[in-house]
Structure formats: structure tokens, C-alpha cells
Amino acid sequence: MLALPAGKVVQVDDISVVIVRFLAEGGFSHVYLVDLEIEDQNIKTRQAVLKQIHLKDALALEKAKNEIDVMKQLTGHKNIIEYFASQIIELEDGNPYNYEVLILMEYGSGGEVVDMMNKRMNNRMKEHEILDIFADVCEAVLWMHSSKPPILHRDLKVENLLVSEQGVYKLCDFGSATTLSSLDSIIVEGKIEALAEDINRQTTLQYRAPELVDVSRRMLISEKIDVWALGILLYKLCYYITPFEENSEANILQVSYTFPKIPHYSPYLQQLISSILRANPDDRPNVEQLKKRVDEMRISPPVPAKKKRKFFGFSWS
């Protein structure tokens, strides 16, 4: 799949854009920075991102349509990359692909969080910076989980976080998003293998909750899979690795991990992570409880306790 040249004009629904430069590629997609050719009163910026996807079959097309539908439903929240327009084109015979999908969305001009982390290898983020990022991500996930029906992201990770020009952290990449009702249709007798295949396609192993790692256990799959992933994301913001890098599946199922000694963060931040990474989904906070706790920590660090206290309703020392 050849990249579009700079200067090429592309029509996305009723919006004309001009390719500025190639940004990235992945699978069957290319991502470009584009200029809006004519100012659109519904779009408050002159630059945007164009995602170009080439697809071969109807199943892949349905997945792309789902991504568009999710973005349409979620757009408007300050911590979610805004959707502008999309177009699906059926390609002519002789083309190696059958469909081309174009999605026009907000440009995170502040860059990617993972790039920001890489630039600070020798000057790791302070605790308040980590909590600022994490609070914005929790806001985005809370918006998703508050949808009717709730939407699960399923691929929450540092690589899917962007920064706006104003320094607002935004969640992107909704290609794996789904509703609980869609998952429920798979989780029936005789469809365990189909569920496992879907999980392998749509999620990243190091961020998978125990109930996704071994579906034969038939544990409840709910919004708590995103909460678990948030715990992994928070750990990675702190330590630049995930807690389950080696022997991942076994360690995830046993929730076996340790905290590096360097860099040093407060025990409260580690307790926050530990309160999320619980094997039983019922023992994890929901994202609303999580956001509330993070906001409290941002306002003022917790006072050290001399005895066991309740953290999200569960005891910790």
C-alpha cells in the first residue's frame, strides 16, 4: 500500500483535505497530517489527522464501521480524540483491496505520551505529572463506560494516549472498542474458542485482565477489564515497563508482580495500583471510584495511616 504524496487533495465526505506529511502506519492503515482546504465552521482547527485503511473482506469492513460508530458516539469529550468525518469507498475490480475507509479526526499536536516518556528516560515524570495524565485517561474511560450501553475500549495502553496543543491528554484508537451486549452474544455455550480468538485479536497481552487470559474459567467479563488495563497503564507511566513482562499469562493469573525500587514513588501511588490489580473483578474499583480517588490524591497526598484503612472499600496497610 503506497503512501499518499504531500500536496494530494483527498475528499472525506464533504470535507476536502490536503496531505501535509505521512505520520505512521500499522497493519493495513496509513496515518497522515492534513490541512483542511476550506475552513469548516464545525471544525475549530485547520489541521487534522487522516486515517486511511485498505480492507479485503466484509468482516474487516464491519470492524472499521464499528470504529467509526464508536468515535461518533464518544466525540465531544475533552479527553477523547474528536471525530470529524469519514467515508467508505468500494474499490474497483483489479485492486488488491475491496474497500478503502477514510477517517478524519483531531490532531494531537502535542505528540504522543510514549514519545514524551522516551524523551525523559533520565528525568522521569514526577508523581503529580503521572496523576495528571492518569486523571485525564480516567475521565475518558468514565465517559465510555457511562454510555448507553457501556462501551469498553479493550486496548487501553500508553501508546494510545495523545496530547493536545493545550496540554490535555486524550485517548485514541477505538478499533477494539465494543459494547458489553456484543461480548455477551459471544459468551455462550460453545463459543469460548470464538471469544478467545476475539480477545487475541483485539487486546494486548500485557494489559489483559485475568478473566481475559483464561476464558475457560468463565469469569464475568465486564467494564472491569478496562479498569485492570488502567492499572497496568498507571504502572507503566511510573516504571516504563508493565508488571507482567515475563511469563505473562501465568503471572497475570496469579497477579504476581513487584514494584521496582527506582524511580521512587509514594506508597500511596503503589497502593492505588495494587487496589486495581486484583484477580477478582469484583474487588477492583469501578472507574468512577478510581477517578474520585485520583482527584483526592491530586489535591493533597493522603495522610499516613497507623493502622489498616479502607481503600475503595477494601483494606490495605
UniProtKB/TrEMBL annotation:
<keyword id="KW-0418">Kinase</keyword>
<dbReference type="GO" id="GO:0004674">
    <property type="term" value="F:protein serine/threonine kinase activity"/>
</dbReference>
<dbReference type="InterPro" id="IPR008271">
    <property type="entry name" value="Ser/Thr_kinase_AS"/>
</dbReference>
<keyword id="KW-0547">Nucleotide-binding</keyword>
<dbReference type="GO" id="GO:0005524">
    <property type="term" value="F:ATP binding"/>
</dbReference>
<dbReference type="InterPro" id="IPR011009">
    <property type="entry name" value="Kinase-like_dom_sf"/>
</dbReference>
<dbReference type="GO" id="GO:0005737">
    <property type="term" value="C:cytoplasm"/>
</dbReference>
<dbReference type="GO" id="GO:0000147">
    <property type="term" value="P:actin cortical patch assembly"/>
</dbReference>
<feature type="domain" description="Protein kinase">
    <location>
        <begin position="17"/>
        <end position="299"/>
    </location>
</feature>
<protein>
    <recommendedName>
        <fullName>non-specific serine/threonine protein kinase</fullName>
        <ecNumber>2.7.11.1</ecNumber>
    </recommendedName>
</protein>
<keyword id="KW-0723">Serine/threonine-protein kinase</keyword>
<dbReference type="GO" id="GO:0007015">
    <property type="term" value="P:actin filament organization"/>
</dbReference>
<dbReference type="Pfam" id="PF00069">
    <property type="entry name" value="Pkinase"/>
</dbReference>
<keyword id="KW-0067">ATP-binding</keyword>
<dbReference type="InterPro" id="IPR000719">
    <property type="entry name" value="Prot_kinase_dom"/>
</dbReference>
<keyword id="KW-0808">Transferase</keyword>
